[in-house]
Amino acid sequence: MNLPFGRVLTAMVTPMTPDGELDATGAKAVVKHLLDTGHDGIVVNGTTGESATLTSAESIEMVEWAGEAAGEAAKIVAGVGSNDTRHAVEMAKLAANAGADALLLVSPYYNKPTQAGLLAHCRAVADATDLPVLLYDIPGRTGIPFAVDTLIALAEHPKIQGVKDAKGDFWAASQVMAATDLQWFSGADEVNLVHLAQGATGVVSVVGHVAGKRYAEMVAAVEAGDLATARRIHLALIPLVEAIMNTSQGAIMAKAALKELGVIEHASVRLPYLEGPPEHLEKLRAALASTDLS
Fold first, then answer.
1. Would residue 111 count as lying in a domain?
2. Residue 287 domain-assigned?
3. What string of pLDDT tens digits covers the 294 residues of the chain?
């Protein structure tokens, strides 16, 4: 199988110093950590990368640093989404020039275009470079879902090759999988097992910052038809998923977890995010201590 994005991906955090500047050393350390824990794909400038608070120049720096650290060991998937199509096209070209292997394209947020507008937006960005495009469907944040018919139409574009599904509409996912060759990726750790069982290619995780090996094992188990093993992994990770995804916010708690493991020095975030309160950090520490991550 051709894997333009990889199979085990994490949407990586953007490490920062206490004064809010990007931390190149920390970014490269996170990439190395992800490579050492079973990843063959890394997403930069996604939701968990605090893309909404990065400048265009900072986003491209993250692509460059990730590529330098990963070399040929993993695909670097660069988030280039915008609610301004011209800006998204510009970011796609800059990311390609910076060495990205693929693009992550979220649906335009806030302005809520029609499905026809969404089609035109995605085609314009896909036309801008020769890189494969992973569509990102997360209507809880953007306000607009990709309709089934829209995804089927977009699948006809040769550069549009996959979907990161954070929508959780499993019937719609099945319909698109049945009608297209799009590679499907779970975009929510709570339902990774469900998506894999219905035929997803892989996962784009957040909890993978600390549980990458477990998710790599889950993907391999499902591919081998060993759903019992995949289910055991899924159940064992519940405390960690709860601590990272269902307390403060994924980016906040993923940084806290990486700091706890000694991967990064600071868990700093940019406003409007704040670092997690003590009770959330205690829940995280307990989950890390009780979960086998080796």
1. yes
2. no
3. 899 999 999 999 999 999 999 999 999 999 999 999 999 999 999 999 999 999 999 999 999 999 999 999 999 999 999 999 999 999 999 999 999 999 999 999 999 999 999 999 999 999 999 999 999 999 999 999 999 999 999 999 999 999 999 999 999 999 999 999 999 999 999 999 999 999 999 999 999 999 999 999 999 999 999 999 999 999 999 999 999 999 999 999 999 999 999 999 999 999 999 999 999 999 999 999 999 998
Task: Give me the active site residues, please.
Answer: 136, 164
The per-residue b/e assignment along 173-207, b for 16 or more CB within 10 angstroms, e otherwise, is beebbeebebbbbbbbbbbbbebbebebbbbbbbb
Residue 257 lies in a domain: no
For position 194, which CATH number holds?
A: 3.20.20.70
Q: How many domains does the chain have?
A: 1
Residue 87, domain member (yes or no) = yes
